[in-house]
Amino acid sequence: MTPVPVEKETFDRWQIELYECVESTNVLARHLPPWTAIRALKQSGGRGRFERSWYSPTGGLWTTLVLPHKQPNLRVNTEVFPLAVGQTLVWLLQRLGLNSARLRWPNDLMVEDKKLGGILMELQINSKVLLGLGLNVQNQLPESSSLQTPATRLMDHLDMCPEPAQLLLLVLEAVTELYTRFFTEGFTPFMEAINASIAELRQVEISLINGAKVGGLFAGVDEHGNPILRGETGGFSVVRANEVARFSEISNQNSG
User: Mean pLDDT for each consecutive 10-residue tract of the chain (256 residues)?
Assistant: First the structure.
């Protein structure tokens, strides 16, 4: 049975639909038109990259935004658009007062070495982009012992933490602005911000789809969104994003 929204509202160009509980907001959004935003109070089958499960209890922001293709060649930008979204959300979190927020390649929102949220983008053949966002706000966190990266939530870092509904409106404003900027200025300003924000070079290990592993210090991204690594001898290498199966920060025993 298809879930039925319990509330609907309009915000700017967006049609917002609120659901009590869905399996996955991304799955539900596949059948909805552009400029629709779905929010669920909780998800029973939330997921991240490579179908990894995502704990989604009441109190978090679990949402999917449906965007149209701005131009026919959006497909070639699938590696960089999520990075631009991630940097945009980092800027938003910093405006809220969370100065230690950062983006961990390619799609994790971090507070220092703890995971605050994640982004999941899907490109639909019917000219839609699904932008899923899971953000820990006021929700109970999963047991840390079951996580490779400890989780954190927004309420633990802000004296005035917005409610998930209020936070969604801020996200919609930021993504609307991003959408226009990305297709007028390209990825360059986001790439420059991502690279400028790296306060320390973190040791990482990248597992490739073919089973090989490469390691080094994460030194930023190139114009295609590929991670750049600095080796022990000081040289730099680029890893193709579409060949990455897992990206792990290992200096603090963290894994993505």
Answer: 90 97 91 95 68 74 90 62 95 96 95 94 81 95 70 95 97 95 90 91 94 95 96 91 92 46
Q: Which two tokens stand for residue 213?
A: 């592993």
Contact between 199 and 110 (Cβ < 8 Å) = no
Q: What is the pLDDT of residue 147?
A: 57
pTM metric for this prediction:
0.90
What's the confidence (pLDDT) of residue 68? 86
* Count of other CB atoms within 10 angstroms of residue 152: 19
Q: Could you give the CA distance from residue 79 to residue 171 in angstroms, rounded to a whole number?
A: 21
Tally of CB atoms within 10 A around 41:
18
Task: Report how far residue 256's alpha carbon sits from residue 123's, in angstroms, rounded to the nearest whole number.
Answer: 22
HSE-CB for 169 with a 13 A CA cutoff: 8
Q: Where are the domains of the chain?
A: 7-196, 203-249
d(CA 74, CA 183): 9
* Amino acid (one-letter) located at 4: V
Report CA 81 to chain centroid distance, whole Å: 10
Give the pair of three-digit tokens for residue 210: 């073919």
Contacts of 75 (CB under 8 A, 6+ apart): 123
* H/E stretch holding 189: helix 188-196
Total number of residues shown for the chain: 256
Architecture of domain 7-196: 2-Layer Sandwich (3.30)
Topology given in CATH for the domain delimited by 203-249: SH3 type barrels. (2.30.30)
Residue 142: per-residue pLDDT? 80
pLDDT tens digits, residue range 155-184?
999 999 999 999 999 999 999 999 989 888
